[in-house]
Structures are given as structure tokens and as C-alpha cells.
């Protein structure tokens, strides 16, 4: 009786090499996927931070517009009257306007750069 024998049988060293190459391929593939996932997560965090910054910029601009509206003389006067404040308007004729090069003897000297 004849035994069935393969002509090109796989021997142990060849099987070990195939298993080794397969494991190396799996490790490289897993590393690639892991690094890509980390990169995507960092990108999402950066995007979220940029969105938070733009939201804060919009909020700051909104508050600046509100403050500018409150600093308007007419609006400020109406709010002071409504609140019953004892502050009164400043007479423009009593406001002292100084040019940068002028010096007034009655005022104390202040050091400046």
C-alpha cells in the first residue's frame, strides 16, 4: 500500500517564517491604526478648542458693542435719570483741554515716558 505523501510538504522552519511575517504584519497594521486614531482624536480636540476661541471672540465683540452703547452720552444720561443718580452733566466750557506739549504751572508735575 502506498502512503499519500505531499511532494512539497511544508516543513517547520517555513511555517515559523510565515507565522513570524504574519505577526509582524499584524503589529505594523495595529500600530498604524492606533497612531491614526490618536491623530484624529488630537485633531478633534484642536478643532474644539478653535471653536471655543471663536465663540469667545464673538461674545467679546457682543459685550464691546453693549459697552459702546452704554458709553453713549444720551444713553448714559437716560440710564442715570432712570436710576435716580445724583450725578449731573459736566459743562463742556469747564473742561480743560491740554495739548501734549503744554505745561500748566498750577498743576503738579507727573513723570511720564
Structure description:
- With 113 residues, this protein is mainly alpha-helical.
- Helices cover 63% and strands 0% of the residues.
- It has 2 helices and no strands.
- The protein has helices spanning 12-71, 73-83.
- The radius of gyration is 40 Å and the shape is rod-shaped.
- The chain starts with 11 loop residues before the first helix and ends in a 30-residue tail after the last helix.
Quick overview:
This protein has helices at residues 12-71, 73-83. The protein has 113 residues and is mostly helical.
Spans where pLDDT lies below 50 across 5 or more residues: none
Cα-to-Cα separation, first versus last residue: 113 Å
Order of helices and strands: HH
**Rg, Å, rounded:** 40 Å
What structural class do you assign from the helix and strand content?
Answer: mainly alpha
Quick one: how many beta strands?
0
Helical content class: 55-70%
What fraction of the residues are assigned to beta strands by DSSP?
under 5%
User: Quick one: overall form?
Assistant: rod-shaped
Number of helices: 2
